[in-house]
Design brief:
By secondary structure, the protein is of the alpha/beta class. The protein has 16 helices and eleven strands. It folds into two domains: about 130 residues, Glycogen Phosphorylase B (Rossmann fold, 3-Layer(aba) Sandwich), CATH 3.40.50; about 190 residues, Glycogen Phosphorylase B (Rossmann fold, 3-Layer(aba) Sandwich), CATH 3.40.50.2000. About 40% of the residues lie in helices and about 15% in strands. The strands form two sheets. A six-stranded parallel β-sheet has the order 3-2-1-4-5-6, with helices on both faces. Strands 8-7-9-10-11 form a five-stranded parallel β-sheet, sandwiched between helices. Its EC number is 2.-.-.-.
């Protein structure tokens, strides 16, 4: 059996959908398993032993050539987790016996099985996990209801990251937190002045070293955040320590006691390495879609809706997305401090 999973999206989505391969490998140990993803997301699934081949795509490539290549592979099963118009075309052209997608008007004509994205989660894995695994049910009734995503670091990556931290004068026997300072866009970034107040709280309560998750072209923004912090907090921030690649970021985060900050791919990656997380959700997002494995101890998240639910009554998603700044302004750090304090108490040395 030859199976293709399609997830040409962001890093967090690619990591989360990789759970399908663990499930498929256990149920069909001799199957040939391929993963079609955007090339820049490959590091998050690198070394995954359950995936036989990665099909890497980037915008410079010809989509028509990709379609011809997919058709020539003669897949028995295609699981289109992304389910947009382009991937629906790939699914339809594949000629696979099983063509599985999410339920959209353009996937129905080309798919043998379609599933709604709307589910009521029954496990701690949450809807993001369960709705993906449900896509496997046409193939067998033996798949589990939930599987936790995993990242596969090599020993030399872990050792090199530890050495980098030690050479920078960071004592990892002290508390060390990775801060998700910036979201994937401005609309998904907790106001920097507010975040600075939370960083002051972290240092005051734990005296932790703080690292920022950012790339060089975001340095102006993180320097702005640094400037909003108290002088005591600034002494514990190491702006010059960051991952020069996604794999190095993962290895550095592996040594951290927690990842705290904006919800996004970094939060999901930390969870996949069993690093505790405290996530701040952007107001337009639905927390229940991505608060995977939240247990109130190791993984905690906060959303403005938790504190001011009346603000969201009769507010369509379009309005939330256009008025995001107004909603963020109402999400004062004082609302978060108590939950953050409990999290620090449970996840500090």
């Amino acid at each position: 059996m030859k199976i293709l999973v399609i997830q040409m999206k962001m890093i967090g989505d690619v990591l989360t959908s990789s759970i399908l391969f663990e499930a498929l490998r256990k149920e069909f140990p001799k199957a040939e398993l391929h993963y079609l993803i955007n090339a820049h997301t490959f590091p998050v699934v690198q070394n995954n032993p359950n995936i036989d081949r990665f099909v890497l795509y980037n915008k410079e490539q010809s989509f028509s050539k990709l379609a011809k290549k997919m058709k020539a592979e003669n897949y028995n099963v295609v699981i289109d987790v992304l389910s947009n118009i382009k991937t629906a075309i790939l699914t339809g052209l594949s000629g696979a016996t099983y063509r599985i997608s999410y339920d959209k008007f353009y996937t129905k004509p080309v798919s043998t099985h379609v599933f709604s994205r709307k589910i009521e989660p029954k496990t701690v894995g949450g809807s993001a996990i369960e709705k993906r695994l449900r896509m496997l049910t046409p193939l067998s009734a033996n798949f589990p209801a939930e599987i936790k995503p995993k990242i596969f670091l090599q020993e030399d990556e872990i050792i090199n990251a530890k050495q980098k931290l030690e050479e920078a004068g960071i004592d990892i026997s002290r508390n060390l937190y990775m801060i998700g300072a910036l979201g994937s866009s401005e609309k998904k970034t907790y106001p920097l002045k507010y975040l600075a107040k939370l960083l002051d709280q972290i240092v005051e309560e734990t005296n932790a070293h703080l690292l920022f998750n950012y790339i060089p072209n975001q340095k102006t923004q993180v320097e702005k955040l640094f400037g909003f912090c108290s002088s005591a907090t600034q002494k514990n921030i190491h702006l010059d320590i960051y991952g020069n690649s996604l794999r190095e970021f993962l290895a550095i985060t592996y040594h951290c006691d927690a990842l705290i900050g904006n919800e996004g791919g970094a939060i999901n990656m930390a969870k996949a390495m069993e690093v505790p997380t405290f996530a701040i959700f952007a107001p337009p997002l639905h927390k229940e879609n991505w608060n995977m494995y939240e247990d109130g101890k190791k993984n905690i998240s906060v959303h403005l809706r938790d504190f001011k639910p009346d603000m969201f009554v009769d507010k369509p998603e379009k309005q939330l997305k256009t008025e995001w700044e107004n909603f963020y302004n109402e999400f004062h750090p004082g609302m978060i401090e108590e939950k953050l304090g409990k999290f620090l108490n449970m996840n500090s040395k």
